[in-house]
From TrEMBL:
Transmembrane segments: none
Alphabetic keyword roster: ATP-binding, Nucleotide-binding, Transport
Taxonomic lineage of the native organism: Bacteria, Bacillati, Actinomycetota, Actinomycetes, Kitasatosporales
A Pfam cross-reference name: ABC_tran
The protein's name in its UniProt record: ABC transporter ATP-binding protein
Signal peptide location: none
Annotated PANTHER family: ABC TRANSPORTER RELATED, IMPORT ATP-BINDING PROTEIN
Protein's UniProt keywords contain Nucleus: no
Natural source organism: Streptomyces celluloflavus
PROSITE patterns linked to this entry: ABC_TRANSPORTER_1 (PS00211), ABC_TRANSPORTER_2 (PS50893)
């Protein structure tokens, strides 16, 4: 799927003044010591611009999920820097990290993580209810309309399809107006039609609501919805594609697989 006139793999237009939602600088993550030492991230430097949709791809063990978890404050870092806006994550204590994740970050996971006893609307507003915050009603209405849930707000998760449940999860992530949303394989449990709907909603949130989305995926079709794709291998960024198509992403993945077999 292409949604730009640029050729696959062509450089993105210059964005010298583009604001940055999150940034990693020489970011490293190491697990274990001595014989069990594993370098999951090896001095990764990357920026995620505001109001942009970035996909992170790579083979199993490449570090893509680790990068997302470190950038989202879900995992500690071993070296370098990880920032959300101007906030250095390593400088925060546990309570400060919890507050930052609650107030500035939205999460969408492969598992929908909805509470079965709550309605769709109650699931959407739950994080704000826990924080004692009232939602911006106009924004909330806009989110609900964008993800197509207006007629399902009183339904509980068991009364919703998989695609509708993931829409609730997307709306929950958007409702608090976070600075950035991290999505980990958000269409992994969905059929192709429901997956396309959810990806379309994420892309629309970037286009219409100036949301920032960073998505880990293994699916070239899903990556084709993004503005930019970052490829990781062995804990390092090895290539980027701007304004990608699914075919261009698949070609790059095949190239990486071929290199892996001959190395």
């Amino acid at each position: 799927m292409s949604h730009a006139t640029a050729f696959p793999g062509s450089p993105a237009p210059a964005r010298a003044t583009a604001a940055v939602a999150a940034r990693a600088t020489d970011l490293s993550k190491v697990y274990g010591r001595d014989e069990t030492r594993v370098v999951a991230l090896d001095s990764v430097s990357v920026e995620f611009g505001k109001a942009r949709f970035t996909a992170i791809m790579g083979p199993s063990g490449s570090g893509k999920s680790t990068l997302m978890h470190c950038m989202a404050g879900l995992d500690s870092i071993s070296g370098g820097s990880a920032r959300i806006g101007d906030v250095e994550l390593a400088s925060l204590g546990d309570k400060q990290l919890t507050r930052l994740r609650r107030d500035k970050i939205g999460f969408i996971f492969q598992a929908f993580n909805l509470l079965p006893t709550l309605t769709a609307l109650e699931n959407i507003t739950l994080p704000m209810d826990i924080a004692g915050r009232k939602p911006d009603q106009q924004w909330l209405n806009n989110v609900i309309e964008t993800v197509g849930l207006s007629g399902r707000l009183t339904h509980r998760p068991a009364q919703l399809s998989g695609g509708q449940q993931q829409r609730v999860a997307v709306a929950r992530a958007l409702a608090a107006q976070p600075e950035i949303i991290f999505a980990d394989e958000p269409t992994g449990n969905l059929d192709s039609r429901s997956g396309a709907e959810v990806l379309g909603f994420l892309r629309e949130s970037v286009r219409a609501m100036d949301q920032t989305v960073v998505m880990v995926t293994h699916d070239p079709v899903a990556a084709g919805y993004a503005d930019r794709v970052i490829f990781l291998a062995d804990g390092r960024i090895v290539e980027e594609l701007h304004e990608p198509t699914a075919d261009a992403v698949l070609d790059r993945m095949r190239l990486f697989d071929a290199k892996g077999r001959t190395s």
